[in-house]
Write a structure and sequence with these properties.
By secondary structure, the protein is of the alpha+beta class. The protein contains 5 helices and 9 strands. It has one domain. The termini are far apart.
């Protein structure tokens, strides 16, 4: 056999040694995520909008604590080279609000792509200010924007959630493979949205 053919065979075997285990890992990971989706769907009474899908992207909708909830995937676009753009998935939970509040609450130490037109304000509550940043107009009062029940719900939210436009939102990069994390995120978004809706 000539050296070129032997080199090709070695390269093919080396690639197979890398890609075959990756294939099985991805397949196993997909089954884990599908099990998480089913568990969240069943325990929280959400409805899978893509029941025939064998993929690992959730698409759940329903009511929790009297609030409309959606669990889905947001595909973030980013530049991967000078000429192409790629996407990365983020698992997203959204609790829909009936009206856009006059404030926004963002998790502290998280970067956001959009610039804020509202001003970052301290509330005077150390537990809240350590976890979140409140954005308000210069003339609005933090106490009016965040009555005690809402501030308490935000402080208690585990994981922390954001109040952005007409939704209470939680996001995590990648696909969530822990059902408890996803269920807690749904409950936290629903709880905070319910307090906002019933003020």
């Amino acid at each position: 056999m000539n050296a070129g053919i032997i080199a090709v065979i070695i390269v093919v075997l080396a690639l197979a040694g890398v890609f075959v285990p990756l294939f099985f890992w991805a397949k196993r990971r997909s089954k884990v995520v599908q099990a998480v989706i089913r568990q969240v769907e069943e325990e929280l009474g959400l409805v899978n909008q893509s029941p025939r899908s064998t993929g690992s992207f959730p698409n759940l909708r329903g009511m929790v604590d009297g609030v409309e909830i959606a669990v889905d995937v947001y595909h973030q676009r980013y530049a991967s080279s000078k000429s192409t753009a790629s996407t990365r998935p983020w698992t997203r939970v959204r609790a829909q609000l009936s009206e856009k509040p006059h404030f926004q609450v963002r998790t502290r130490n998280r970067r956001y792509a959009e610039k804020m037109r509202l001003s970052a304000r301290e509330t005077g509550n150390a537990a809240f200010d350590e976890k979140y940043v409140l954005f308000l107009s210069e003339t609005a009062s933090p106490a009016e924007a965040l009555p005690p029940a809402l501030m308490d719900a935000l402080i208690a939210a585990d994981p922390p959630v954001d109040v952005l436009n007409k939704a209470v939102v939680w996001m995590q990069k990648g696909m969530v493979s822990d059902a408890m994390v996803l269920k807690n995120a749904v409950r936290a978004c629903a709880r905070v949205a319910s307090v906002i809706e019933n003020r």
